[in-house]
Amino acid sequence: MDIARIAVHESVAKACPLEAMVAALQGPDVRVETVGDDASFDASDCVVTFSPREAFLDAAWVHGIRAGYDEFDVDAYEAAGTVLTNSTGIHGDTVPETVVGYLTAFARRLHVYRDRQRDNDWTQEPYDAPFTLTGEQVCVVGLGTIGQGVADRTDALGMDVVGVRRSGDPAENVERVYTPDELDAAVADARFVVLCCPLTEETEGMVDAALLAQMRADSYLVNVARGPVVVEDALLNALDTGTIAGAALDAHWAEPLPDDHPLWNHESAIVTPHVAAATSRYHEDIAALVRENVERATRGESLRNRVA
Ligand code: NDP
Ligand code: 7N6
Asked: Where is the D-isomer specific 2-hydroxyacid dehydrogenase catalytic domain positioned along the sequence (predicted)?
């Protein structure tokens, strides 16, 4: 594959400044430029993009700047013979650090005190509300780049770590790995269930009323995966009725989360606007992946992170 141009689609601006991405992608042998929805593509183009567009199927290769590629029609890429690569591998620090933040906030009640600070309110939480992460169990669903990062950090904090993945293969710092058909058992003893899996036909709606009912009443759900992995009504009901103690959500069913969504004002919810992966070096991490693959393409080697 001979790449003459890297076309940076304007949707990249959802994750980082376009100019920063263009500058980071510069190299000796390719032209790098920004393109909008009116652009056309040919077999010497690599498109770097946040969102899919049908016109990209005319390019040689499309690189999605997210780990999740659920919005891309993989079959259409295969039918068109267009290579599709994703950005898994670069979120092993950012998202796990955010997850540790959610867990610490819930255990040490930081989210409650931040809310009270706005009203100069000195009220302390009840004696039995705070707890320590040390000694609590966390169930990490999906043990890839992000899940492993969560497992490493929570293990280092003294937590008991269990995990779930299709292969069931052991993972470092995870005491027991379950398969998806054992999900009920995997979540049953956990104080925290952290979703780090992709959105697929298998995972859509995986966290439903029945699974939430299997979770402990004092447990917390963390979703840094994709909104539809969780059944929205089931979660809202579980929070309202005390089936679980709370939830931290970075990934939502509709983004932005609508103004009138009940989660905004839910005391036991932490809502972040899909920023668990945010970092001021996002453009550099993506550019390193793309530049490596341009070199591989030039040498006729297979591309890293190829998903179609
Ligand atoms: P990886 O591909 O590295 O890991 C995905 C993991 O999920 C693998 O361990 C895989 O293992 C497992 N998995 C797949 N299907 C299932 C299933 N049915 N049940 C349980 N585990 C499953 O991806 P990343 O860790 O880089 O990213 C994971 C997801 O997180 C992304 O797809 C994206 O949706 C989301 N994400 C969100 C971000 C944010 O900003 N909030 C940032 C980056 C990613 P196996 O194949 O053995 O099942
Ligand atoms: C954008 C990260 C992913 O899948 O959802 C995230 O990688 C997007 C900063």
From this structure: 61-307
Q: How far is the CA of 200 from the centre of ligand 1 (A)?
A: 10
From the CA of 281, how far away is ligand 2's center (Å)? 13
Pocket test for ligand 2, best of 274, 283, 305, 307 (most atoms within 8 A of CB): 274
ipTM over 0.90: yes
What is the DSSP code string of 192-209?
EEEE-----TTTTT-B-H
60, 161: one domain: no
Q: pTM of the full predicted structure? A: 0.98
H/E segment holding residue 47: strand 45-49
Atom 7 of ligand 2, residue of closest alpha carbon: 66
Do 35 and 100 reside in the same domain of the chain? no
The answer as to whether 307 is a domain residue is no
Helix (H) or strand (E) holding 240: helix 232-241
In a domain, 211, yes or no: yes
Q: Is 230 in the pocket of ligand 1 (CB under 6 A)?
A: no
108 plus 156 within the same structural domain: yes
User: Is residue 8 within 8 Å of 33, Cβ to Cβ?
Assistant: yes
Instruction: Residue 246: name the closest of 209, 191, 175 by CA.
Output: 191
Task: Report residue 229 CA to chain centroid gap.
Answer: 11
Give the domain range for residue 11.
5-88+279-298
**Residues 49, 129 within the same domain:** no
For residue range 127-148, list pLDDT tens digits in order. Answer: 999 999 999 999 999 999 999 9
